[in-house]
Each structure stands twice: as C-alpha cells, then as structure tokens.
Recover the amino acids of this structure.
C-alpha cells in the first residue's frame, strides 16, 4: 500500500499522525515512558525487527520526541528518554489506554493500571475544559474551522456544511 | 514491511492500536464526527483510494465504532455514524489535536478549533483524575502492572524493573 503523506493536511490531528501515526511509534513511546530505555530492552519487549526499531528511534529523535543520553564512549550504547514534547504526548496514550480499558475485552483485568500519585488511587483520566473546568465530552463540544481556514473549500467542516446544504 | 498483530499483547494501548492504529482510521473517525457521513464525502476529503476506504469502513463497522444508517433501497448508499464506542474515542482525537496544536508548527494558526458549548469558549482539553479531580500529568502518575500480570516476565514494567536491578 502506498503511504500518502499527511504533511499537506493542515489539521493538527493529521499532522500529529504524520509524526506519531506510524504503527509502532506509540508503543515505543510507551516503553520508554515505562523505563525501558535501551535499544535491546525495547526490542525485546516489542519483538520488533532491529532495522525497523532503528528507523523509528532515529525518527523519534529527529522529531524531538526522544533524546539520547548516557552515550557510551564506544558510541554503540545509549539511553533513550522522553523530551518535553514526548512527555506531553503521554496524555494521548493515557486517553487511548482508558478507551482500551473500557472497550476492549480483558478477561484477566487490566494489564497495566495508572496510579495518580496526587491521591494514590488507580485513575481513569477524563477531559476537562481549560477555560471553565467542566467536563469535555463529544456532546459538549463542537468543532469549527480556524479563522485562517474558515472559507477553505478543502476544510472538512466546510465540506460537511456544503454537503448538508 | 510485515505487520505484526498486537492482539497477543494484553496492554490496552496495544489492543486499542490493533483497532485504531491503522494509518487512516483516526482521520475517518474525525471526518464522520465532523459530519462527513457518506463514502463519497470521506473519500473526497481524504483523497484515499476507494478500495482502502471500503476496507477501513468495513473494519470500523465490524469493530463496532461506526454503524450504517439511512440505507437507500438500492443498498448502494448509506450514512456512517459513530456508535457509543466510536463517540468514546473522540477524547483520544481531542488529546491528539491538542498535542498537535501545541507542538506542530502552524504558521496560519489552528486549522480547526474546539469550542466547549458549556462555556462557549475555544478549549484546550486537559486530563483530570476521576477519583480526586486534580490534574493528571506524566509527573503525577505512575504505571503499575495489573494484578493478573504483576509477575508476568513479559510485562514491560516487570522487564523495566529487571533491567534496573
């Protein structure tokens, strides 16, 4: 299958997927966040081929999501850590995890639990508004085209409005 | 590249990716949520091949994320809508969008904005704990293996602990 680049789509979701949407990438970020920081550890955990993992790690470093540290004098070993941009991605994984916990059958219970250290309870994160602090749900949000794109005939919201008209 | 199935990985993130991780799928869900409900509309918006889109829509219906409605008597046209499971996925896209808004350069400003209808302001969702209501950040959370998996040598947290020991 030919992969089409999402670079040309201005949408933040499409552009985030351009960086992150690749099949293994979220699991590599998960592993590094859990403390698997060496190539061999991540490779052992995911069972991914060395070539693919090398590519993905290089891409994640290039995109500023991971950085290399504790590089051995020989240059052949290093640790991978999350940058601020990478740490900022973890809420996406937490939200994805909460969705999987709810909707994917797990006969033995959840594989991993998230503990909120502020209250020391297992937590299921949910979204609130940064303006009013109330819950954000699909029912209490609507999307609108950003000012620069409000009349762009390629914007999906402009297309959707045209389709309804 | 051979695609490995994540079915065997119990982790909710891996299992959610098994359903959602496919390159086009999040954008199809986005389009349907924005009101593009017909095959031709989604196809026109994404510029995706008809074969691939047919496959993805069938998979999303099979996985219970979309359903078909307003099916024409001829059986050749229908609308796609999000199920409850599909609506529940939108917070993942909102979180991904917020990350993209923050970290991907957008010289013309955001392509799409999210308006919180409760307070009628543009919103940037963030995560709070369902137990104590306080903010959830990478700094205030830790992951632990679920009870059934606490001693599973394949669990990444058990691997990470072994690597530190």
């Amino acid at each position: 299958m030919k992969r089409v680049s999402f670079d040309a789509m201005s949408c933040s979701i499409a552009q985030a997927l351009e960086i992150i949407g690749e099949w293994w990438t979220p699991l590599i970020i998960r592993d590094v966040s859990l403390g698997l920081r060496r190539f061999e550890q991540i490779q052992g955990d995911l069972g991914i081929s060395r070539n693919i993992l090398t590519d993905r790690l290089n891409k994640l470093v290039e995109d500023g999501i991971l950085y290399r540290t504790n590089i051995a004098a020989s240059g052949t070993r290093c640790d991978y850590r999350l940058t601020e941009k990478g740490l900022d991605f973890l809420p996406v994984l937490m939200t994805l995890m909460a969705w999987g916990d709810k909707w994917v059958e797990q006969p033995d219970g959840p594989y991993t639990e998230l503990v909120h250290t502020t209250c020391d309870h297992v937590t299921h994160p949910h979204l609130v508004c940064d303006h009013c602090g109330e819950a954000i749900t699909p029912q209490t949000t609507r999307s609108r085209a950003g000012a620069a794109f409000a009349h762009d005939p390629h914007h999906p919201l402009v297309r959707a409005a045209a389709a309804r008209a």
About this structure: Strands of chain B lie at 66-69, 79-82, 112-116, 121-122, 126-128, 141-145.
